[in-house]
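Students often ask what a holo structure prediction actually looks like on paper. The answer is less mysterious than it sounds. You provide the chain, you provide the ligand, and the output is a string of discrete structure tokens encoding the 3D arrangement of the protein together with 6-O-phosphono-alpha-D-fructofuranose.
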Amino acid sequence: MVPKRNQTLGEFIIENQNSFQYSSGELSKLINAIRLAAKVVNHEVNKAGLVDIIGLAGDTNIQGENQQKLDVFANEKFIQTLTNREIVCGIASEEEDSFVSINSHDENHQNKYIVLIDPLDGSSNIDVNVSVGTIFSVYRRVTPVGTPVTLEDFLQPGHKQVAAGYVVYGTSTMLVYTTGDGVNGFTLNPALGTFYLSHPNMQFPEEGTIYSVNEGNYVHFHPGVKDYIKYCQMEEENRPYTSRYIGSLVSDFHRNMIKGGIYMYPKSSVTQSGKLRLLYECNPMAFLAEQANGLAIGGKNRILDIEPTELHQRVPFFCGSRKMVEKLQEFLAKYQ
Ligand code: P6P
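The corresponding structure tokens follow.
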């Protein structure tokens, strides 16, 4: 894939469609649908402070978390756009208790992709004007084409993903994604409503000096994680590192991929399996990380090798610059 700077996302998709092993055009249409939904959500996120759309929708999602109105809006827009384009046969979302089966108007529809999304990750930051993001993960279905999807189509290990990416609604809005041939970042020009290739072939620096973790949970962490955090803080070699934690996975990941760093959401004595969800947060970010020469682990194991058991299951998550994740693994191994 030879990206050309300032190429539009549309041109990029067309030019690289044939390099994708399943190039039937459907995946291109899927990425285009995500592009459209991202622009619609971006418009609402950017004016959230101005209209009465922020604040709680009064409902709570399966995670027991208060649903912010923008959560609900983003969820509806992504599901609606993907459904209208008749590209996918099923969608799972953080905001939906179970998966949504998309039965196309064409009874013998041949749609073969399923999508899992976190429509607005970090939404608790909306009221304080901190950047938030959308995360998406794409698989080919494993049950027969033309039949309604089943849970089996969604409980696939992360290494089966055919595409993954995120939208970060920050100081500028970016769409960053992979189809298994590297990671490319596109920045939205809001005046034109067009995404331009601004970050071709994104790579995690092999080493970094930023660590991202909610240190308020330190007392509850595994001893190996505590030792690694203390290692980051020691005055030695190129340390102490810098601590940066936004409370928005997409933003912390994006910064660490550009500057070098490690993001950690460990399990703890309070959150026995961690907080982040495997299928629509950890797997897509792990696919991106590995495509960008980084690493993503749950502890001993690679995130992408975990065999899912539940739609909303949570896992511990450590992800970022290869050498930083490998150093963490050394500390974890001391206690195994
Ligand atoms: P805590 C947002 O809710 C999220 O899923 C990630 O985006 C973020 O990194 C993490 O949770 C923040 O969690 O417990 O540190 O507030």
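The chain has two domains: 9-199, 210-333.
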